[in-house]
Amino acid sequence: MCEAKYDFLTVRDIQRTLKIGTNVAYNLIHSKAFPVIKIGKNYRIPAEGFYAWLESAGVAKQ
């Protein structure tokens, strides 16, 4: 059995983490701020890229 190498977040996970609405979350994932994978009609965000973005100096200082 293969172990998952990556953890992924959903748009809903990002909404909860950042306490933002649906439209803002979709605007954010379409802004290319961090990597996003589209699977059919669903989006998955690699957790490592999202949390790196979140901890980056530009985001932390805003």
Strand content: 15-25%
- CATH topology title: Arc Repressor Mutant, subunit A
Pick out the low-confidence regions.
none
Helix/strand structural class: alpha+beta
Can you name the CATH architecture? Orthogonal Bundle
List the helices and strands and how they pair.
Layout (H helix, E strand, L loop, with lengths): L7 E2 L1 H8 L3 H9 L6 E3 L2 E5 H9 L1 H4 L2
Antiparallel strand pairs: 1-3, 2-3
What do you see in this structure?
The structure is a single chain. The radius of gyration is 12 Å and the shape is globular. 11% of the residues are buried. The protein has 62 residues and is of the alpha+beta class. The mean pLDDT is 87. Helix 1 crosses helix 2. It has a single domain (8-60), classed as Arc Repressor Mutant, subunit A (Orthogonal Bundle), CATH 1.10.10. The chain is built from four helices and three strands; from the N terminus they run βααββαα. It has a three-stranded antiparallel beta sheet. A hairpin with a 2-residue loop joins strand 2 and strand 3. It has helices spanning 11-18, 22-30, 47-55, 57-60; strands at 8-9, 37-39, 42-46.
Task: Give a quick summary of the entry.
48% of the residues lie in helices and 16% in strands. The protein has 62 residues and is α+β, with helices and mostly antiparallel strands.
